[in-house]
Design goal:
71 residues, mainly beta, 1 helix, 5 strands, 7% helix
Length: 71
């Protein structure tokens, strides 16, 4: 599934936070969704394709990552 397809899903849509990094010509993104009911979910992408999902934890600081808050 692509990142655009996830954005168009009514249950997911726009994430609360996006973290991007690049390694060996691959762009990685981690999308964090914070739910109104509590808790958070994480979707992981590599070059725009969904490669994993799970429960979100606080991200560790890294010099190669850039975070964007989506409003």
């Amino acid at each position: 599934m692509s990142d655009d397809e996830v954005l168009n899903l009514p249950a997911w849509g726009r994430p609360s936070t996006i973290t991007r990094s690049k390694a060996n010509r691959v762009w990685y993104e981690e999308w964090i969704y914070r739910w109104r009911t509590g808790g958070a979910s994480r979707l992981s992408f590599a070059n725009g394709r969904l490669v994993g999902m799970g429960t979100a934890a606080e991200p560790a600081p890294a010099e190669t990552q850039v975070s964007y808050a989506v409003h």
